[in-house]
Amino acid sequence: MRFSKWIVSAMFTFSICSSCQLFPEEQSSKPAVKSGAKEAAKPKTGAPLDSVMEALYAAHTFEQTAVAPDGKKVAWVETLLGRDGAPDGHTAIYVADRESSGAPKRVTAAALKVARAEGSLDWSPDSQQIAFLSDAVEPGQLQLYVVSASGGPAKKLTSAKGLLATPRWSPDGKSIALLSTENATRAAGPLVAETPETGEIKDAFFEQRLALVDLATGELRQISPADMYVYEYDWSPDSARFALIAAPGNGDNNWYVANLYLLDAGPLGLMKAIYKPPLQIANPAWSPDGKRIAFIAGLMSDEPSVGGDIYTIAAAGGQAKNVTPEMPTTANWLAWTGQGKIVFGETVEGDSGVAMVDPDGGPIDSLWRGQEQVSAGLWGTNISLARNGKTSAIVRSSLTDPPEIWAGPIGYWRPVTHRNTEVKPAWGEAKSIHWKNDGYNVQGWLIYPRNFDASKKYPMVVAVHGGPGAAVQSKWPDPGNFVMALAGAGYFVLEANPRGSYGRAKPLRAPTSGISATEIFATSSPASTKPSASLPSTRTASALPVGATAAS
How many CB atoms lie within 10 A of CB 107? Predict the structure, then answer.
């Protein structure tokens, strides 16, 4: 299981640089040594790759974290490892007091010591309970459960057949909304592989609808129209309506043309379009007074990869207002504070940042910025924010430090978990570098070879992220990251954020055909290896890319 991604990546890399050695050695003018006893003494070539694989698979990873509305507790979803040391599809939910040194408690719907897929957690408004999804009864079939934050047996609320996702408590605490796809044969999203069709092939698809679960009766009721695919939603403060991002027809195809809707939570389920965006929109969030809805809009490549400017629109509809029109960064996520301000996660060049803006006007206030990745479980920069608008929880990692759960005031987080204290990188130093192309500043991450020696020369591999609506940040690599294995095997690795990437002003965010390769290889040319380009000198590193691998 763990080797599949490595094998595919290796085949691709060798196909584009068949003349390259996977384990490079410095070029020497000495005559070749004849075969014999000395050749038998060569080190094992598998050792560098093995050490990288061990580091990647040794790290515990986290899928989500959420701080309680009162800020006192933190819950998270942790990936479990199978007998072979690789993720086996099972996850576990833990809860800890933020200010206590006590051991975290596991909450589950499964029997004691039985591993299941459990996650998608959401806190109740009073911070006393947690809603989550689990396949405790039937592997592969998620159901909705509620459990006390202090532990105890979980209560099963649904007996659905199909896909359930994204449960959220109503502000009044009386019901839980979630996305429901009846009789779905696969998970939702355009990046998920289709289920193989057999027999008569039909043009059929499943609509993801918004459903309500009444906590008093356990009744599940789908309330959005049967022909409408719902991508995201948010409760109104009075628990009477929803803001939806949705589109009719095939959900995999139509996210790019989705509109903003209002949906009545009552029995009639009346639905009304209030905004048709010129580009893509995401992350709808209702203001505390119920008068406005904020969202992110921009040119986005894929549904999970959110990036753009922050807009607000009156709940009754009308003209949308851009509240960050001159922002030189990219917003990835947002949430309202109780005081009517908007806190948002942003990509700043290749860094993560958290900032605040007053939707009624005024400058953007940067709250924190770092050369790392912080996330509560979504793509890009995002946090889980408590009701006070200050306390938050994050999954925090970098190319130097493996992931852990942190919590506290924004920018002043403290570690909650210590799962990966013994895990160390098996690659060299990572530096954020900048260079110019066509008059623009471009950024990327240069990862040095392990045990870098300034007296030697090394080849370089360029890894190009997909999208282009995305950005490479300093993040602990996922298991199976073949590119990072090369840095452990004697290569420089350049992960660039060319034009079209998030983290730059809008003129640089617009994708342009052919620009990416020009900008990436501008820093790989001999002229750009001078110190002013923040790259090692030509004496210490050859600027000959051994190939460009596509990484997304």
Answer: 24
Task: Name the domain count of the chain.
Answer: 1
- Global pTM reads 0.85
pLDDT in tens, 280-329: 999 999 999 999 999 999 999 888 899 999 999 999 999 999 999 989 99
* Residue 526 maps to a domain: yes
Residue 230 lies in a domain: no
Q: What is the CATH number of the domain that holds 453?
A: 3.40.50.1820
> Considering the domain boundaries, does residue 538 fall inside one?
yes
477 domain-assigned: yes
Q: Where on the phi/psi map is residue 19: left (φ > 0), alpha (ψ -120 to 50), or beta?
A: alpha
The closest alpha carbon to 190, from 279, 233, 232, 251, belongs to 251
* C-alpha span between 493 and 445 (Å, rounded): 8
Which one is predicted more confidently, 485 or 291?
291
Q: How many whole angstroms separate alpha carbon 86 and alpha carbon 526?
A: 41
Joined together, the tokens standing for residue 237 give 């403060």
Tokens of 186: 């696969």
State which amino acid sits at residue 229: Y
- In the chain, % helix, strand, coil (3-state, to 5) comes to 10, 40, 50
Domain span at residue 537?
Answer: 8-20+47-55+425-550
Give the chain's length: 552
C-alpha dihedral over 377, 368, 339, 98, to 10 degrees? 60
- Would you say 228 and 242 are in contact if contact means Cβ atoms under 8 Å apart? no
